[in-house]
Amino acid sequence: MNEEFSGRVAVITGAASGIGNAVAHYFAERGARVVGVDLNEAVADAMAAMPGTGHHGIAKDLTAPGAAAEAIDEAVRVAGTVDILVNSAGVALLDKALELSDRMWDATINVNLTASFKMAQAAGRVMTAKGYGRIINLASQASVIGLDQHVAYCASKAGILGMTRVLSLEWAPSGVTVNAVSPTVVETPLGKAAWAGQKGEDMKKLIPAGRFAQPEEVAALIAYLAGENAGMITGENILIDGGYASI
After folding, report:
1. pTM across the whole model
2. Is-catalytic flag, 224?
3. Average pLDDT in the 117-133 region?
4. Active-site residue among 26, 153, 224, 244?
5. Per the CATH hierarchy, to which homologous superfamily does domain 9-186+215-240 belong?
6. 68 pLDDT band (50/70/90 cuts)?
C-alpha cells in the first residue's frame, strides 16, 4: 500500500458514492484515515469497505443548522484531528431560468455552496489552530462557463470559487491551503446515466479531448493538492475538463 497520506485524517463529504467515494478510496489506499460524510446512511458501509482500517462514516444532512460543526467535532473525536477536507457533496437540479422553482434554487445553493462553506469554516478552525491543513472544494466547469438549464448550479459553483479565494488568503498565514477543482462531466454511475446516448456523444464533441473525465483522475488531482508538494498552491481553481473551457 502507498503510504503517502499515512498519519493524515481526511474528511470527505459525499463519500457514499460518485466522486466523493472515489476520492475516499484514493486516500484510503494511500494510508489516510478517512471520515466520510454523506446524507445517505450507506456511508457507514462505504467506509467499512475502504482499504486500511480506522475509517468512519457519518450520516448527516449538512444543510441542517449546526450539522457541519457536528460532523467536524465527530471527526476530531474519532480520529483525533482533521488534516484534509474535501467538499465533494453536491446536487444538480436543472431547469430553465424562467421556470426554476424557489425550492430548486434554495436546495442547490444550500447543498453546493452553503454546506461547503460551513464544513470549511468548521474544519478551518481546527486547521488554523494547529498550523496545517488542506481544503479542496469541488467546483465544476460550470464555475467558469454558462450551461443551459444550469443557472442555480453555475451560480453555486461560481460561489465556490469566490469562497475558495477568500479562505485561501485568510488562512495561508496559518499553514492552510484552500483550492478548487473543476471537472467536466465525470463518468460516475450517475454521470453515465445522465449523459447516456446521443446527449453524451454530443457533449463529448465539445470537449477537445473527446471524452469525459474518470473519477480516479479527479481523485488524483485532489490528492496532489492535498499532498506535501502542493504547499505553495492556494486560492487556485484547476480545471480538469479536457480543454472544454479553452474553446
Report:
1. 0.96
2. no
3. 98
4. 153
5. NAD(P)-binding Rossmann-like Domain (3.40.50.720)
6. very high
